[in-house]
From TrEMBL:
Keyword Cytoplasm: no
Pfam families in UniProt: LacI, Peripla_BP_1
PROSITE patterns referenced in this protein's UniProt entry, alphabetically: HTH_LACI_2 (PS50932)
InterPro entries membership: HTH_LacI (IPR000843), Lambda_DNA-bd_dom_sf (IPR010982), Peripla_BP/Lac1_sug-bd_dom (IPR001761), Peripla_BP_I (IPR028082)
Keyword DNA-binding belongs to the record: yes
GO molecular function, one term: transcription cis-regulatory region binding
Gene3D superfamilies: 3.40.50.2300, lambda repressor-like DNA-binding domains
Protein name per the record: Transcriptional regulator, LacI family
Superkingdom in the source lineage: Bacteria
Domain HTH lacI-type, first and last residues per copy: 4-58
Keywords from the named record: DNA-binding, Transcription, Transcription regulation
């Protein structure tokens, strides 16, 4: 099959080559109907931009760097799928690095990507990142950066998140309505945006339903669930309390599976003795024993929206004077791990 060109698309659609070129670059100068027409035809004909030609013309690498905590986490793998689905069609290559929840690796990854002259960065902060200088310095030098999921409050740029407060509130409310009175919260380091927002939703639900907030029922895992011994110690501390929890709301994939593993090793029945709700996107949630009630995030859509915002910064930097924080809705999928006390007996 011969490679289709911009000229071929223009001729087939009766448009100028410059119009087709701008439409494929998602230019604000082209109306949405024309963009849709061009993009659909290009996809149908398997059009792919020539990255070498684009780089020579624009003095850009046509590549985007992505740094996430861990690809094995199903949420982040879905996020990457969303990023690549948009970037590829717009002629960008995606270079992916993992921080493994390490600040030092995050800095090293960032420096390497910049040395390879990526056009911009998509970042989800590691659980140990408290110093943001490496990002602030790059942005001051003009490198476009967009944050997603775990975002810094101190940096002004585009950000894509979910409504962590609402998702956490709904999860806690569900546990309260199922008859639970001592609801613990297993979460990440307090300085992460997702931690503070999910903690706030949890506390608000308790307050609204007349249950006291007890700080001792909140356990922070400073490696974000990556270190199994840390997870086990946190759950063990909960179980050794004078009044152990009758429900645990967990704030991430690894924390959820780690918590369930500890409870099962100790022969604690879920949900009869302790109900579980996770903030998780694991694809096998319904296959766990018991099937897991979960707050699910629209991870793929988050990735798509984040890369669209980044490419807009890359291609139209002069047009950016107002930055967006997009907050997407979560959904609560109720399964057997959190059924009411009466049903569980």
């Amino acid at each position: 099959m011969e490679t289709i060109t911009i000229k071929d698309i223009a001729k087939a659609l009766g448009l100028s080559t410059s119009t087709v070129s701008r439409a494929l670059r998602n230019s604000y100068e082209i109306n949405p109907e024309t963009k849709k027409l061009v993009m659909e035809y290009a996809e149908r004909m398997n059009y792919r931009p020539n990255p070498i030609a684009l780089s020579l013309r624009d003095s850009k690498s046509k590549s985007i760097g992505v740094i996430i905590p861990e690809i094995a986490n199903h949420f982040f793998s879905q996020l990457i799928n969303g990023i690549e689905s948009i970037a590829y069609n717009l002629g960008y290559h995606v270079v992916i690095f993992q921080s493994h929840e390490s600040y030092e690796r995050e800095v090293a990854n960032t420096n390497y990507l910049v040395s390879r002259k990526v056009d911009g960065l998509l970042i989800s902060l590691s659980s140990l990142t408290t110093n943001l200088f490496h990002f602030q310095d790059l942005m001051e030098r003009g490198l476009p950066i967009v944050f997603l999921d775990r975002v810094p409050n101190a940096i002004e740029t585009h950000k894509v998140v979910v409504d962590n407060f609402a998702g956490s509130y709904e999860a806690t409310e569900h546990l309260i309505k199922s008859g639970r009175k001592r609801i613990a919260h297993l979460t990440s380091p307090i300085y992460l945006s997702i931690t503070t927002e999910r903690l706030a939703g949890y506390k608000q639900a308790l307050e609204d339903y007349g249950l006291p907030f007890d700080e001792s029922y909140v356990k922070y895992c400073y490696h974000g669930g990556k270190v199994a011994t840390e997870n086990e110690a946190a759950v063990q501390e909960m179980l050794e309390m004078p009044e152990p929890p009758d429900a645990i709301f967990t704030a991430s994939d690894r924390l959820t599976t780690g918590c369930m593993s500890v409870l099962q090793k100790k022969n604690i029945k879920i949900p009869q003795q302790i109900a579980i709700v996770g903030f998780t996107n694991i694809s096998v949630a319904e296959l766990l024993n018991p099937p897991l009630t979960a707050v699910v995030q629209p991870a793929m859509e988050m990735g798509q929206q984040a890369v669209e915002l980044l490419i807009r910064l890359i291609e139209h930097p002069q047009k950016t004077d107002v930055f967006e924080t997009r907050s997407l809705k979560t959904s609560l999928i109720i399964r057997e791990s959190s059924v009411g006390k009466a049903e569980a007996l």
